[in-house]
Amino acid sequence: MKKVLLVHNDKENIILHYRVKVYSYLSRFLKKRGWGLSVICSKKDDEFCDFNYHLADITLKNVIQYVLKNDISTVILFINMKRWRLFPLIITLRLLGKKVIYWGHGKNLQDESNIAKNFLYKIAFFLSSSILLYNKISIKKYIPTFWHKKSYYANNSIDLSDACCLRKPSAVLKELNFENSFNICVIGRIQERKKIPTLCDAVRKLKHKNVTLTIIGNIEDQSVLQYKEDTNIALLGPIVGAEKYDYLNACSLYCLPGTVGLSIVDALCFGKPFIAIDDGVIKHSPEVIYLKDGKNGFLLNELNVEALVEKISCYINDPSLIERHSSESLNIYRNEANIDKMAEGFLKALNHV
Questions:
Q1: Do 300 and 276 contact (CB within 8 A), yes or no?
Q2: Are residues 7 and 91 in the same domain?
Q3: 16: Cβ–Cβ under 8 A, 6 or more apart, which residues?
Q4: Angle 215-216-222 (CA atoms, 0-180°, nearest 5)?
């Protein structure tokens, strides 16, 4: 069994609950293929995990000691580029004869034109044995052609193998007093960058068409609270596990006007059409590639209430459109966005080194 260590030190400096599930799945996947995965991190969410982990401050000394003590042959570095630890770690590991895989976006997505930051990424690529990015498009956009042979992609995803529903959609909507409505759902941390007020305003305009909105997640954007008295908008707060999936399964459409992230994988898994905005200003995560305009949803070119109302109305007026887009969402989930595709990308990068 070959041993690989994943050094987790992203900007939040903690393995969040969804990453715990991803690493657990990845560990099981790789173990069947001859790789033993361990993870070193400063802290993790208090959730059951099915992988070896070691809690320690991510310092050069701690990582190197762990690598030498446990006879690690390959190290995957998932480290925010702002942290100075990245380059001393890569250099020391390479001097020790260890293989190093850089895993990340490949560029600062919030500041893509910054020459100094982009140069640092190039240094990381040069020093690494292999490069692992979030999708195939990122390789073409961010990696020079002469490094393509050592570049791979692991479509970013989450583990939904245990996603299930406990209640019928009709029962869920009845509980919300949304019976027989056209229900829209959005799940995640409700931050300003998600532009939820724009969606709420669109739903207000469509109230006469019996359109309702379910918002699930911690409300960090306080401006959303102005809609809590609306009878066709439900602010449910944080919900996890099967109960969350009950609400997702009950909706007809998923809509996120602002930054699109991993929640799109949830929507695809349950076969939901997706509406998002790409106006050149909103900064999306790589997962937005799962939205194919006109095939499994719509990608609008401006953040505009009227444009949202128009596209939502397309689904209300043509139920067959929902069926077609729902079917395509499921296809994209199976063929591109599921956790197996992500794990296969890791395996290819590991086998390369």
A1: yes
A2: yes
A3: 45
A4: 70
Token digits of residue 81: 């580029």
- State how far the Cα of 136 lies from the Cα of 204, in Å rounded to an integer: 39
Q: Tell me how far apart the alpha carbons of residues 170 and 252 are, in angstroms, rounded to a whole number.
A: 12
pLDDT tens-digit map of 60-112: 999 999 999 999 999 999 987 766 678 899 999 999 999 999 999 888 777 77
Q: What is the mean pLDDT of residues 242-270?
A: 95
Could you tell me if 75 and 93 are in contact, meaning their C-beta atoms sit under 8 angstroms apart? yes
For residues 9 and 21, give the distance between their C-alpha atoms in angstroms, rounded to a whole number. Answer: 17
Amino acid at 299: L
**Does one domain contain both 54 and 143?**
yes
Q: Average pLDDT, stretch 330-352? A: 97
pLDDT tens for residues 132-162?
A: 999 999 999 999 999 999 999 999 999 998 8
Question: Of 275, 277, 317, which is closest to residue 296 (Cα–Cα)?
Answer: 275
Q: pTM above 0.85?
A: yes
Look at residue 84 in the predicted model and tell me its pLDDT: 66
Return d(Cα 180, Cα 323) in angstroms, integer: 17
Would you say residue 164 lies in a domain?
no
195 CB-near residues (< 8 Å, 6+ apart): 256, 257, 258, 259, 277, 282, 303
Q: Which domain holds residue 325?
A: 169-337
pLDDT of residue 108: 79
Supply 320's token pair: 């067959």
Instruction: Name the token pair of 229.
Output: 């008295």
Residue 10 confidence class, pLDDT cut points 50, 70, 90: confident
State the SS3 of 112-169.
Answer: CCCHHHHHHHHHHHHHCCEEEECCHHHHHHHCCHHHHHHEEECCCCCCCCCCCCCCCH
Do 126 and 233 fall into the same domain? Answer: no
Phi, psi (rounded to 5 degrees) for 250 = -80, -20
